[in-house]
C-alpha cells in the first residue's frame, strides 16, 4: 500500500468521524474463561485461545503465557502497525525491521513479600530497529508520530480510569 492508497482508504473514515464524532468511539473487548483446575485463564484472542498463568517468578512453570508479556506484545503490535502506517503516509519505504518491548516488574510486589515493592511493570523500553530509506531526521519524526498515535502506548502513558464490577 502506498500513501495515496492509505489516504483514499482513510479519507471517508476521517470525514465520517468529523461529521459524527460518536462514530469514532470504538469499543475494545477481551474475555477469558477461568480454569477450574489451575491458576490460569483461557483468553479468547483474535486468532484462537491463549492460556495465561503464573509466571515462573510467581510460582508458575513457564508453560503458560505471562500477562505482562501479553501486554508488551500488544504494545509491539500497535507500535509496529502505527509505524508502518506513518511510514506509508510519509512515503518512506520500509524494507524490514523489528519493534521490541521490554519491561521490568518486581515479583516481591505481586507476591506480597514487600509491601513497598511496586506491583506491575515499572519500566518499559520500546525499541525500533527499522530498515528504511528515511534519513535520521525523518526516522525520528516517524518514531515521534508513532508515539503520538499508538493507542496502546498512549494508554500506558496516560492510564484510563479502570472500574471493577461483579456480574
Description:
It is built from five helices and five strands; from the N terminus they run αβββαβαβαα. It has helices spanning 3-19, 67-90, 107-110, 136-149, 151-157; strands at 32-34, 40-45, 48-53, 94-105, 121-132. The strands form two sheets. The protein has a three-stranded antiparallel beta sheet, with no helix packed on it. A hairpin with a 5-residue loop joins β1 (32-34) and β2. α1 (3-19) packs across α2 (67-90) and α2 (67-90) crosses α4 (136-149). The radius of gyration is 19 Å and the shape is globular. The protein starts with a helix and ends in a 10-residue tail after the last helix.
Low-pLDDT regions:
none
- Which range does the strand content fall in? 15-25%
The arrangement of helices and strands along the chain is: HEEEHEHEHH
Main β-sheet, spatial strand arrangement: 1-2-3
**If you average the pLDDT, what whole number results?**
96
Radius of gyration: 19 Å
Counted beta strands: 5
Structural class: alpha+beta
Q: What would you call the quaternary organization?
A: single chain
Helix content: 25-40%
Alpha plus pi helix count? 5
User: Main sheet, how many strands, which sense, barrel?
Assistant: 3 strands, antiparallel
First and last CA, distance: 44 Å
Name the overall outline.
globular
